[in-house]
Amino acid sequence: MPSTSRTAPPGRRDSRRPARPAHSAVLAARQRERDRQPHYWFAHRLVLVLSGLRPVHLLLGHTRGQAYEQLARLAPHAPLRPAAAGAPAPAVRQVGWCRPGPGAVEAFARITAGDRLRALAFRLEQGRDGRWLCCAVELDAPGTPGTAAGRTPGPGPGRVPAR
């Protein structure tokens, strides 16, 4: 005769269906909404391009001239590519932003690339059609051509000035 004792996992109250955290659907919805915001969207796309996972033309219609040129110079070097084969792909850990004026967002992203924490800064401006365009990009990558490491702030070959 089979045993009638219950073997439900701890914390499970309903024996007919598996337990699931009530807040998981809410958290997933919040994350989807957050990822639709322009600064999060651009941070993820910039990481894909600068890690070599996607081609630079992924951002062709989403950048202004000088910012696209900056990305085209950086992308072949893939400065965010993991150093070791089989290492996890770079991931956006945090995105911060501010609005210096109407129609502009200045953002930064903290990125994990292998065992390193990297920084990426970018400026977005809203066009007349309402679309957000990236108009400046800066990466902390020391020793990578076209970056600002070891230089004083200001427009120059490694920094794309805002229009």
Task: Give a description of the structure.
Mean pLDDT is 79; it is low at 144-163. Helices cover 21% and strands 25% of the residues. The chain has helices at 24-35, 38-50, 65-74, and strands at 91-101, 104-113, 116-126, 132-139. By secondary structure, the chain is of the alpha+beta class. The chain has a domain at 30-139: Nuclear Transport Factor 2, Chain: A, CATH 3.10.450. Strands 1-2-3-4 form a 4-stranded antiparallel sheet, with helices on one face. It is built from 3 helices and 4 strands. The longest helix has 13 residues, at 38-50.
Features:
163 residues; 4 strands; 4-stranded antiparallel sheet; 21% helix; Rv3235 family protein; alpha+beta; disordered C terminus
SSE arrangement, N to C: HHHEEEE
The portion of residues assigned to helices is 10-25%
Tertiary shape:
globular
Per DSSP, the total helix count is 3
Largest sheet: 4 strands, antiparallel
What oligomeric arrangement do these chains adopt?
single chain
Question: What's the β-strand tally?
Answer: 4
Protein name: Rv3235 family protein
Region (Disordered): 1-31, 144-163
InterPro entries: DUF6459 (IPR045596)
Pfam families: DUF6459
